Amino acid sequence: MDGGRRMLGRAVRLILSCLALAVAQPALAGAPDQWITLENACHATGATPAPGHDSTLPTRFSCHGELRDYQRASLWLKVNAQTLAQAGPTPVLMVHSSRFDALHVGFFYRDGTADWQEVARGAYGANWRLGGQIAFVPPQRDAALVGVVLRFDRVASAPMLRMRLIDGGQAQIQATAMASMIGAMLMLLALGAVYNFGLAFAVRRQFPAWQGAWATCMVAWGAMWSQFHLFFFPGLAGVVSAQICTALSCLATLLATYSLLTAIDPGHVPRWLGRTTRVVALATALLGVPLSLMRSGPLEFWANALGFLVLLLLVLAGSCLITAWRRGSSAARAFVGAWAVPMLALGLSSVVDFSHAVWGGGSQMLVLAASAWQTVWLSVAATRRFMGMRIERDRALVAEAAAQEQARRDPLTGLRNRRGFTDAITPLLDRVTQAPDAVLDDSHGVALLLLDVDRFKAINDAHGHDAGDVVLVTLARRLARWDGAMCVTARLGGEEFALLATGMGRFAALQLAESVRTGLSDCDHSPFFGRGQVTVSVGVAMARAGDDFAALYRTADAALYAAKHQGRNRVVIAPDVIYPEGDDAAMPIRIGIGD
Fold this sequence. Notes:
The protein is of the alpha+beta class.
């Protein structure tokens, strides 16, 4: 538990650091970023040049009109002079990684020289940056930079490209800040995944397991979108990573939906609403499969269809939360703060263009930050909730144990009743049944003492039942002194008591019985009915191999009958028993009440 608190404390500090970096964004900004769009750049399309002719420019660029037939060819974009001039004297070109086979960038100088740089799928070299971007830094020359041309080979969707020119100094600052933010967010999600899987194992609940799976999926998505994985797998740069990111993002919506639905208490969401939400989540995940594989065709159409499904899913998930809240679900109230932030971020990113936000990180950066917020909140809230449930369970177990103990106790005297006595001595007698077919030796012997108050009926008749109850309580308190690890005491009913002792032979059992008889006879009852003495008769039986409680009880009961028959206030140990004669000899003997 201490380790969990340290983990959550570290997570909180990390997320606060990320928020501080986000707040500091305006202070880090120098010259404004110059975004290159299809509207402010001239374009051309054509067949992909043969190797060795990569720098051969198209004969004609068009600054108007719609782009066509570029998905299986090359798309050329030329930055206009005004955009380039506003980017500062040392601009850096930042391109958001997307689905293309190769990207060639040419920097043109006033003296007529040009410098070409390129990246290709699986080979980004030193150009990639955290935040899902590729950086192209023009070499420093005496001549001024007057032109920038980009050539995309087999780009899947031109409208989804994000490109900007930024001052070189600001590019370095933003790269450092982005690396810190992304590292913090991924660490939060990774810690949340480990913590939730551990919590799921500890509490045996579905919700933290789904939450852990979602956090794991988001770690994988965040690492691939931000290109963090290129530290370890540089060959995955480009198209493969973009395709995997699409599939992971759709899978994450499915896992998040199941995490939400399993977190809400059963019965607080209508069955039709829960089923509809699950179906839409599954459809979203399935649509991600073909969308992740597409390299050509109506990619924007299917992306918009996916966006519609995501919005519908958010509405349904929000309806589940609100309905559960209104029906009194404690889980919905505890987790609504966690779910509201990522749902709002995902919903807004589907209808609002955040592509220029957070230094080019766009909506992906907002979703990653919201996801980190969610996993921290849910981890804390789930821990508090399950700890509360565990405390309630422990209290219920304690109450149940107390109730069971009370059911095994005599309400008047507090001693064990017959049921409690039987449960307590059964393990002791089990050892007797495993002994050889002989009376157990002195170190392993088991003796049952049955005690009956002499002339108890006369006490009740002369002094009333209240006085009789006081006598029983007084005797029980004295008898309880012998209760311990080797002696078990009980009130079996009426004025009859029992004591089972272990670890003694016949002689020791007889001495114990005499000690008990004397001790009970010495009880002072004078405050209730004068100086009259209350005595008890004791019957003792030594357990033999194979005896159960019923057999041992019959033997001790016969000895008790003999003690009564011989004048009361005495101890008789079997087989020193006078058994009845005649037809009743084989029948169990009981002493009448008050005898």
